[in-house]
Design brief:
It contains 18 helices and 27 strands. Strands 3-2-4-1-10-9-11-15 form an eight-stranded antiparallel sheet, with helices on one face. It has a seven-stranded antiparallel sheet with strand order 5-6-7-8-12-13-14. Strands 19-18-20-21-22 form a five-stranded parallel sheet, sandwiched between helices. The termini are close together. The relative contact order is 0.09. It binds 2-deoxy-2-amino glucitol-6-phosphate. 2-deoxy-2-amino glucitol-6-phosphate binds next to helix 9.
């Protein structure tokens, strides 16, 4: 999704804008641009492709002098990647410049209206209506023009705006697209996300829907949609600055995989007190938890996969019926939701458009919602009735790893706590689960330290055309995630199948040498999956098995075996995913793919 930045202060703006945009590269983009006020005019420079093209064009910003500016990385939605469609966009007189993240849904209607008033459009974007509309309403008061535009546009937006007539000021406004403001010593900043400003300040304001921020070199003020001034509290960001950088690793994905033990600890530890689980933060009474008749888990992508895992765990431990839905399906399928049901929305970014819409759908129907979210202050975190944060810190690589692992353990904690409160498990069982949970970080470390074996294996498969991932029960849930990891970063076609389904179609795709990763961690299902492995190898498949330490029997059936340490059967997904992540990572590196920013993908999918 697009990224926006803005700076106004005592330093040259362009290098700060380029630096800020580089911290937002993870959001995915295909072109970039910056606008800087040079003392007389607003100057714009744009480039298609990577940010380094824009940096080269501007000699790292040196050719664009001025201490106020806005910048943008564009992930094309309306109109192909091109200079004309790249932001910032100007009004005809080049006196107003705008950068935008989001989608203006009624832009065609507005465009027609503006064309009728004589406005000429030069791009195919929805954004251009915003700048012409601002021009149309601007009568000397930028706030008034902005609020009038807010009343006219439908859809989502985070906007950075400059008016040539107000050179010492930057304007920013949002609705349903992320926006933060940083209050720095040598100037103030706007950005789509915190990493873009961390180098300059830790003092950040999270802008809420339909709020306007007005930044000068020294001051920041805020207004509501009626143009009335409002007060806001700032937040001090206490992330380690390195958390938003690569910290010596070749890729963010590798760094984030290595952060998983810590992430799991950070998500577990604050919630385990005196041998019991403390989820007071949710403010849910025991009575409320006992009354839950059904849980709906709704999410997208990897977050959805953790939901599939959670279904097995909630049903298995807490005996609560669970439905898992893709958010894009849930929001349009008119789901049956009843009182005393709970909708859990899982999201790393907290900004995924479909997940947010699903949350709103549930709320509109009067159903209690709980967000399991990583990004503090994100839309889902703010709008859900209850929030449980996964303390994974900023995740930059498009392919999620540490947030995925944090989501899993957050879900285990909830399932165990609900089970205990509902009398489904004893205190002794809780203690035993907690003991196993607390071993996970160390066990993940151990698996990560074995990376060479997987790296070596992965190198043999960089030319693979198709890879299949199979498993039963929880092993099927992890197969889905293993398959997504591989396809998203290596561009190898891969599919996950419930092992028992192979004979119903998929096995016809197996050819001599086809790689199949079989996950076999559920003891009760060992024999069943091993039979499937035999069926696969006898048709020429090469089977890589991921199984529990001790299950040596599998060596008779599979061609290559990776063992994970022993843990409780409900938690094996937290361990089995590690070799699968490493495998995908090394295939991607071996193929020379852009590991952290795979083609066509964005970190945060803030449009439908
Ligand atoms: C996973 O690696 C993905 N890039 C993607 O599937 C992601 O999990 C999905 O878009 C959901 O994002 P969210 O957790 O931020 O809502």
């Amino acid at each position: 999704m697009c990224g926006i930045v803005g700076y106004i202060g005592v330093s040259q703006a362009a290098p700060i804008l380029l630096d800020g945009l580089s911290k937002l590269e993870y959001r995915g983009y295909d072109s970039a641009g910056i606008a800087v006020y040079d003392g007389e005019n607003i100057k714009v420079q744009k480039a298609i492709g990577r940010l380094k093209v824009l940096s080269e064009q501007t000699h790292d910003g040196a050719t664009m002098t001025g201490m106020a500016g806005i910048g943008h990385t564009r992930w094309a939605t309306h109109g192909a990647p091109s200079n004309q469609n790249a932001h910032p966009h100007f009004n005809q007189e080049e006196t107003i410049a705008v950068v935008h993240n989001g989608i203006i849904e009624n832009y065609l209607k507005l465009k027609k209206h503006l064309e009728g008033k004589g406005y000429q459009f030069v791009s195919d974007t929805d954004t251009e209506v915003v700048v012409h509309l601002l021009d149309y309403y601007y009568k000397g008061d930028p706030i008034e023009a902005i609020t009038r535009v807010m009343h006219r546009v439908e859809g989502s937006y985070a906007l950075g705006i400059m008016f040539k007539a107000h050179p010492g000021i930057l304007y920013a406004v949002r609705k349903d697209s992320p926006l933060i403001v940083g209050h720095g010593k040598d100037g103030n900043l706007i950005a789509s996300d915190v990493p873009a400003v961390l180098k300059y300040t830790r003092n950040v304001y999270f802008i809420q829907n339909e709020e306007i921020a007005v930044l000068s070199e020294e001051d920041i003020s805020f207004y509501n949609v009626d143009g009335e001034e409002i007060t806001k509290e700032s937040t001090t960001i206490d992330w380690d600055i390195n958390a938003a950088e690569k910290g010596g690793y070749e890729h963010f994905m590798l760094k984030e995989m290595y952060e998983q033990p810590q992430t799991v600890r950070d998500t577990l530890n604050p919630r385990i007190k005196d041998g019991t689980i403390d989820i007071e933060e949710l403010g849910m009474s025991e009575d409320e938890i006992c009354r839950i008749r059904k849980i709906h888990i709704v999410a997208c992508g990897s977050a959805y996969h953790t939901g599939v895992t959670a279904k097995y765990v909630f049903e298995g431990i807490a005996r609560i019926p669970v439905e898992v839905d893709l958010a894009s399906e849930f929001r349009y399928r008119n789901p049956i939701l009843q009182q005393d049901e709970l909708v859990i929305i899982i999201s790393q970014s907290g900004e995924t458009a479909d997940s947010l819409a699903a949350l709103r759908e549930a709320k509109n129907r009067g159903i209690k919602t709980l967000g399991i979210v990583n990004v503090v202050g994100s839309s889902i975190a703010r709008e859900a009735d209850k929030v449980m944060y996964t303390w994974a810190g900023p995740e930059i690589a498009v392919a999620t790893t540490k947030a995925y692992s944090a989501q899993l353990v957050a879900e285990y904690l909830l399932a165990i706590k609900f089970a205990q409160i509902r009398g489904e498990i004893t205190d002794t069982e809780v203690a035993s689960y907690l003991k196993d949970l607390q071993k996970l970080p160390e066990q993940i470390e151990m698996l990560l330290s074995n990376k060479e074996k997987i790296q070596h294996f992965a190198n043999r498969y960089i030319s693979a055309k198709d890879v299949f991932f199979v498993g039963r029960g929880l092993d099927y849930a992890i197969s889905m995630e293993g398959s997504l990891k591989l396809k998203e970063i290596s561009y190898i076609h891969s599919e996950a199948y419930a092992a028992g389904e192979l004979k119903h179609g998929t096995i016809s795709l197996i050819e001599e040498g086809t790689l199949v990763a079989a996950v076999v961690t559920q003891e009760a299902l060992y024999k069943k999956t091993i039979s499937n492995i035999v069926e696969l190898t006898s048709r020429g498949a090469f089977v890589l098995a991921v199984t529990n330490t001790g299950n040596t029997e599998i060596e008779k059936a599979a061609d290559y075996v990776i063992y994970i340490p022993q843990t409780n059967r409900w938690f094996t997904n937290s361990l089995a995913i590690i070799p699968l992540q490493l495998f995908s990572y090394y295939v991607s590196v071996g193929k020379g793919c852009d590991v952290d920013k795979p083609r066509n993908l964005a970190k945060s999918v803030t449009v439908e």
